[in-house]
TrEMBL record:
It comes from Hevea brasiliensis (Para rubber tree). One of its GO terms (molecular function) is 4-hydroxy-tetrahydrodipicolinate synthase activity. One of its GO terms (cellular component) is cytosol. Keywords: Lyase, Schiff base. The lineage of its organism: Eukaryota, Viridiplantae, Streptophyta, Embryophyta, Tracheophyta. The keyword Zinc does not apply. PROSITE patterns: DHDPS_1 (PS00665). Residues 21-56 form the HIT domain. This is HIT domain-containing protein. It comes from the Eukaryota.
Length: 236
């Protein structure tokens, strides 16, 4: 293992220090100018990573907790993922978070997890930060930005600029979208909405199931009310 150089002070007895000194055998899986990544050395966490930042990262704006696209046979749809990530970034999103709960991370095997993270990093190409999820809970706003990234970004920018009245109007639209995206357990409603928008199939892995008929109608109605389907039609 090649030792990394850290910026700033750290506790000489912590796990990162021991790894960097070669005292805790650990496989390095990624390295760039900003971060070092190692397999988690804990036996109870074989699929997680330890990230050691070389320098401070400034994280602000809207980060989308990405849904993971699957094919009809429930295998990973790599082409749809690349297209989805590129469209998110083109919409102005501040960063992406693959393999969170919205991405059905608990159903991904280790190879799939690595593939999703790799494709996200390669597709982002340094345009936005990529933060790989490790199973933590996601907020409503990041789920909404899967479907309406431009609208979520508009709300954030209005708040930053102090335009509260305009922000309230956008927030009302996002609230309606948020409610319907949780009409059944997430991410099934989100994936169905994305399927209507031509982004990915509505497939989810067990124990999740696809959206029921009544909920499909509700999701479609909200998307039509917010002109999200019309916007997609205009892009095609």
């Amino acid at each position: 293992m090649t030792n990394g150089t850290a910026t700033g002070e750290y506790d000489s007895d912590n796990v990162f220090a021991r790894i960097l000194r070669g005292e805790a055998p650990c496989k390095k899986v990624y390295e760039d100018e900003q971060v070092l990544a190692f397999h988690d050395i804990r036996p109870e966490a074989p699929y997680m990573f330890l990230l050691y930042p070389r320098a401070a990262m400034k994280l602000e704006g809207i980060f989308t907790a990405l849904a993971t696209p699957f094919r009809d046979d429930l295998s990973l749809d790599e082409r749809a993922l690349v297209s989805f990530v590129d469209r998110q970034i083109s919409s102005g999103i501040s960063g992406i978070v693959p393999c969170g709960t919205t991405g059905e991370s608990t159903t991904l095997n280790f190879e799939e997890y690595c593939t999703v993270v790799r494709l996200c990093v390669e597709t982002a190409g340094g345009r936005v930060p990529v933060i790989a999820g490790t199973g933590s809970n996601c907020t409503t706003e990041t789920i909404v930005s899967n479907v309406a990234p431009s609208m979520a970004l508009e709300l954030y920018n209005l708040h930053v600029l102090g335009k509260i009245d305009k922000a309230k109007r956008v927030s009302g639209n996002l609230a309606a979208l948020s409610r319907v995206l949780f009409i059944e357990p997430s991410p099934s409603p989100t994936k169905y909405a994305l399927s209507l928008m031509g982004r990915m199939r509505p497939k989810v892995r067990l124990p999740m199931i696809e959206l029921t008929s009544n909920s499909k109608i509700a999701v479609r109605n909200v998307l039509e009310t917010l002109d999200l389907l019309q916007a997609v039609h205009n892009q095609l």
